[in-house]
Amino acid sequence: MTLEGKRALITGGGTGTGADLARGLAAAGAEVVIAGRRAGPLEAVAEGRSGIRPLTADVGDEASVDALFEAAGPVDIVIANAGTAESAPLARTTLDQWNAMMAVNLTGVFLTLRAGLRQMNGWGRLISVASTAGLKGYAYAAAYAASKHGVVGLTRSLALETARKGITVNALCPGFLDTEMTERSIANIVDKTDKSRDDALGALTASNPQGRLVQPAEVTAAALWLCGPGSDAVNGQAIAISGGEV
User: Fold this and answer.
1) Which residues lie closer than 8 Å to 203 by C-beta, 6 or more apart?
2) Left (φ > 0), alpha (ψ -120 to 50) or beta: where does 142 sit?
């Protein structure tokens, strides 16, 4: 499969899954623009790779997202990957925490997909990176799960609007990933409970019937499939990448 001649824009492209997506799409021949709030990690991903261009942006800010797409130029593939996670019992979740989660995880996806759609003409791929938390509930993660459920609803609704335009819209819903974000979740569990790191990791991997963390490369493989030949009828789907967890 080749993505030669395609330009892709990936938010949250400086670390974890976003960085892997950038490398994977660039290896397939796409010109890749990666975006995030911190220049350093973006530049580290792009270093030595002529096919990856870093641009700073805040996905929760409308003007910043519009400027990002203006600087990127016309894109064929948009992957709204930027996200944040924070856990707390709902009774102790502040409004500021709730609003911060929604700003990145839901409003950021809305602004990113909207800006991408506005400049697509003909063939296009809009992909949101949600979570299994967009398909089910998790205790102590109500705000996060609500934001990801919103992403899945947004994705499915937009897919119906674009179904006759050659543009597909899908969500990838991984389980706990082997990324920096999961490491922070493990550290948070250790800090707030009596669990060891191994016990905390075991609690997270227990949700995956395969008993492991999902690798970022597995998300990248799914994204490449959605961008490749034979995927035109795959639209409005929330695809779990979770070893069987639903």
Assistant:
1) 189, 195
2) alpha
Torsion of CA 21, 24, 29, 31, to 10 degrees: 30
CA distances to 59, 144, 145, 147, 214 from 136, in Å: 25, 11, 8, 12, 17
Task: Output the pTM of the full model.
Answer: 0.93
Helices 16-27 and 216-227 pack at an angle, to 10 degrees, of 40
Q: With a cut of 50, list the residues of the chain below it in pLDDT.
A: none
Taking only the tens place, the pLDDT of each residue in 104-114 is 999 999 999 99
pLDDT at 189: 66
The confidence score (pLDDT) of residue 188 equals 67
Question: What tokens does 117 get?
Answer: 């759609």
What DSSP state is assigned to residue 103? Answer: I
Which residues participate in catalysis according to the annotation?
A: 144
Q: How many CB atoms lie within 10 A of CB 112?
A: 27
Per-residue pLDDT, 176: 85
Q: What is the pLDDT of residue 178?
A: 79
Q: In what order do the strands lie in the sheet with 7-11?
A: 52-56, 31-36, 7-11, 77-80, 124-129, 167-174, 238-241
Contact yes or no for 180/15 (Cβ under 8 A): yes
Could you give all domains of the chain from N- to C-terminal order, each with its CATH number? 7-177+214-241 (3.40.50.720)
Tokens of 116: 């991408």
